[in-house]
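Two entries, shown back to back:
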Amino acid sequence: MSLRPRKSIAGLKNCVHGGINHSELTALGIDASSVLDFSVCTNPFMPPPGIKEKIGAISIEQYPDSRAAELKGRLSERLGISTANILVGNGTTELIRLVALTYFRNNDRVLLLEPTYGEYEVASRLAGARLIKHRAVESNNFAPDIEKVRSIIKQHHPRAVFVCNPNNPTGRYLSRDDIEKVLDIIEDGLLVLDEAYIDFIESPWNSLDLTERGNVVVLRSLTKNYGLPGLRLGYAVAREEIIKDLQIALPPWNVNAVAQKVGTAVMEKDEHLKQSLRQVREAKRYLVEGLTRLGLKVQPSDAHYFLVKAGNGAGYRRSLLKESILVRDCTSFGLPEYIRISPRTMPECERLITAIRNLLEAGEET
């Protein structure tokens, strides 16, 4: 065929994500509804009561509001900022690609702090940008070397820097001081601060005032914390000029009516969210202690999810899936020896520990 895609598309592979692969389960003869999914980093104790029932009452006979005005208004009240500084997206991944489409030019340099979320690379390459990478190392518990990052920025003057905070998959959370050290040297480049998992940090610092500098976009999710990943809902916070630029490139009706209404409703459930996050932390402690007692190395993590050095991540995933338990093989992050685990309810966590213990005793983890 003579028709070929743009050079930035040719050779580009889809990003690997966690979650259930229904085709894979069908081939293995496993019922998807029976699988305990520890591979996705969402809140297992949500959504709040009454939310699922509300979905059936939402009108779908009309187009959704392209500007998501009601939801932005609720976010504005919650965050204490103007609606002019907020843009709602069909998940943060849409917003990542929107930033790249709006601001990245062909051959622009973009800096990634790896290992990290793979969609930053996909979005950058789709826009024709060139990637520069700083890779954190195991010996430093996968915390990035901020001075090396600053040195890279000085040398290459990237158009943008993506920082996932807390980072996926490592769970490391950078301090305000570290972020400001990066921002102070980025000059006219753009800092994209992805805080999709910020609600799972026990004592987070407030980053939103950084947007006043004019070259910062903060991204946050409304589905991971409230346990609604099937709805796809996130938002960006930035200076008004940036929001206007992004709005031009945003597809119309990008956020469906159900997501808008449910997103507005769940923000009324603060007490339920706080209680659920306490349960998430308790489940994480149980898992970390249990896995450590089994002799596995658990990497330090400030978030609820964490890395476990398994020796053969793909083998662990495959063996556990036979028991209808799904963990995240981290090979796609460049960490083939690791799996990533995110807590579920306590009975489900107990089942995971038992399954891993049985694998270790049987020597079948690979």
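entry 2 starts here
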Amino acid sequence: MADPVFLITGASSGIGAATARHARAAGYDLVLAARSHDKLRALEQELGALVVACDVTSWEDQQRMAAMALDRFGQIDVVFANAGFGAPRGFLESTPEHWQSMVLTNVYGAALTIRATLPAVRESRGHVLLTGSVAGRRALPGSLYSCTKWAVTAMGEALRQEVDGSGVRVTLIEPGMVDTPFFDNRPQNALEADDIARTVMFAVQQPPHVDVNEILVRPTAQAN
């Protein structure tokens, strides 16, 4: 039998790259997508992955990503809709242009990843994971980013209900503070990307009849 196929958006660094390494070690073939093909080249060489330049806000890019995965491997078993970024807190901070890009990436982009890959995931009775956040469980002061992650929380549950009974599993991964390039000023006493990657693999490696719907994971030092 062919190796199962694990597709990750936002795969060039941080949680995406760490998850790619864990998935490869677990025997998955990899499809790694990010905006910049250049940033994926090291992972392409290291992991033997199929890498795809993909702006998740582009439906054409997402369709091409899914088509390339199916052309190469013939199936998609796990999809990790991980692409996203943040903005400074405060409704008078950042710029409307930055807000627009963030909302499109974090919400619309995740939905497009589901749309592009769901037929294949239904066929494989596979697994869809989305990167949410602690900020998607409690509103942060002045945080439009928090609003986008509340939307992702709802998206995970909406998808779970849609595919109920199909054999497809859905998991929302909700990290607390993680030391990744997401932050301009790297946080202290934070989780590592590798910690979240292990969390992802915990959900994926459960028996097929077990659907871990949400995992909220904080560093021990994070109070809220």
